[in-house]
Amino acid sequence: MAQGILVIAEQRRGVLSPVTQELIGAARAIKNDVGGAVSVAIIARDPASLAEGARLDGVDEVLLLPVTADEFQPDLHVAAAMQAVSERDPSLILAPHSVDGWGYAAALAVQADAGFATDVFAIQVDAGEVTAVRGAYGERAHALLEFPGRDRVLLALRPSAFPAAEGAADSTVTELSVPETAARSRHLEFIDPPSEGGVDIPGAEFILSIGRGVGEEDNVEEFAELAEQMQAVLGCSRPIADAGWLPKARQVGYSGKTASSCKLYLALGISGSVQHLAGMKHVENIIAVNSDANAGIFNVARYGVVGDMFEVSKELRQHFE
Amino acid sequence: MKILVPVKQAALVEDDFELRDDGRDVDPDFVDLQLNEWDDYSLETALQLKESHDGIEVVAVTVGDDDAEDALRTCLAKGADRAIRVWDDELGDADPVVIARVLAAVAQRETPDLVLAGTQSSDLGFSATGVAMATFMGWPHAAVVVALDYSPGAATATVERELEGGLRQRLEIDCPAVLTIQLGINTPRYASLRGIKQARSLPVEELTPEDLGLEAQDVGEQACGARVRKMYLPEKGQAEMIEGTPAQQAERIAAIVKEVMGG
Lengths: 321, 263
Fold this sequence. Notes:
A: Rossmann fold; 2 domains
């Protein structure tokens, strides 16, 4: 019978991604309730070089799975993960709900014939039964998922939702051999984001950010002026950057920038998608202005204004002349 | 050459809503339906390929009940050549794994040269269906694609995936392949009035899982990756709501700004 937890580590450019520690933290928290050992699978060309970063509190065993690619490649990744699954027979597999996770978790779930949920931000274990919580309808509802009849479940965990594991451990390290697998795609290069043009979202202490509520491109200018008057750095949500109304360097969120140094975040006309919240929900002082009283942004804001961002903006300017 | 575009009629939940009596989903009375935002981009990718090369057929497919037909009509109005809808009531609880299995069966029947899916859906956001579909088909796949360089008939395509923090990965992938398309890859067109009118009279092929050679155990609840036990409303955050006229609200915001930032 399947037992234990298998964590699939993530690496890029020879460094373990921070989400790996979160997966280990999640595994450690439920380890006793699930039963069995916690194994961490490192899939890389030279997995041994990354082993130390996974030997963390709660990890019994680090599995080294060497593959023939430097960077994430779905065919090799799934073949390697399947090797670990068949050798350790875990009842629970934890993968990241990251961009690379989107590229393989569903494939692994199908191949391992496992119960499957993505974007999970809470795990419960009750008398050995695993259930998972995820969002639905833009976080307006939460869904509790169960996996009836499954002796193996794969959960892809939302980044930044679980506390990272800390503290080194004396985990054993075992190398497994991965069956020869054809890689049907080939990494060519990474393309770093274009130069920021002086825009520094991660370094900004005060960010005034605009979203879909701005309506049209011609309206962007007045908020750029407002930001300047308020001595804030102008940020935006994805749709504004995708439309080309503001450069990508100003986009806050999962695929954009993280407001790392921000003390005050003024969100105007931003509904608060999961992707946007990932870049700013940690900020201590969030003021949200939105016409929709049920917008998700109000769930993370410290102060909320249900109203018209244009009217509020017009009034605000008079205070910062 | 044929491009298959799997689409979803996504649910947009209204501001105030109630849950269904069984508590396992939102009451459909509080839901508006529209073509999944991501699928607008994957369809546009297919249509742009069709316009720049001769002899490309774009086929939109969805797994959904009668209400999902509108999504296909939208695709036809924008320029898809054909549309297929697969449904049976036993699919009522279908999750991405089951949907992917059905879509893979459609692909087996249609034998496309390329599948362009959306990276995720705007309602449930699993980010799973396209990659699961590729796995059932045994095809190569790449997820979160924001640039595509592909010539019909070529053995490979070059794509860029959008990674975290604005980083991109350029890679080469063997074709045929399933690509999941991310927002921002293009600017989706609006359907013209003429297109909308014409789409009304175009046929939508209707199939059941059985027509595709799938059996009840392939698509029923036991085949799903997960089952929703219940839905509930998230706890509201503790935001302090600033009431009053816009002038009063702005005054309070200004005071908070000055307090936090100093000066």
